[in-house]
Amino acid sequence: GARLKPGDSVVFLGSGPLPLTLIVLCHWYGLKGIGIEKEPDRAELSRKVLEKLGLSGQIEIINGDQLTLPLKTRPELIMIAAQAEPKKEIFNHLAKVLPVGTKLSYRIYEKGLRRLLDTFYLFELPEQFKEYHRVQPEPPVNNTVVFVTKEVC
Fold it and tell me: What are the C-alpha distances in Å from 18 to residues 26, 36, 56, 64, 150?
């Protein structure tokens, strides 16, 4: 959906204690990654995992939240974790501070039991973001990946 290529950078907001999405993307596709995790103990555990895997030179973990964005360098994609909350505040902040043309991805649950716990559908995406691609799940996966770009200031 984001048409990433080797050397591109991605930011993962809500990367957690095991930044598996970043590990897979960066290792398999030659990307550079930055994980942003608001819980200090989880951020530290992430750093230890990356060090053990030999990926600490390719993936950086920052202790922070959506207010950490924008970064000094502009990534090709910002991914919002399914568990990152509160979604409304996150997307409203990003709509205000990110430059036009920034690509984001996020996950929603359109089917399965997880749908009952997902709160993302309770608010509308800020008007500054326009959807350009959606990857529907195939079993056993239940989450849809949505790609948007910021088009308006």
Answer: 14, 12, 13, 16, 28
End-to-end CA distance of the chain: 23
Q: What is the rounded distance in angstroms from the CA atom of residue 143 to the CA atom of residue 55?
A: 27
At 24-82, the pLDDT tens digits run: 999 999 999 999 999 999 999 999 999 999 999 999 999 999 999 989 999 999 999 98
Contact 71, 77 (CB under 8 A): no
pTM of the model: 0.91
- In sequence order, the 6+-apart residues with CB closer than 8 A to the CB of 31 are 4, 6, 7, 8, 9, 10, 25, 58
The domain segmentation of the chain, as residue ranges, is 9-150
> How does residue 140 score in pLDDT terms, banded at 50, 70 and 90?
confident
For 9-150, give the CATH class.
Answer: alpha beta
DSSP state of 75: P
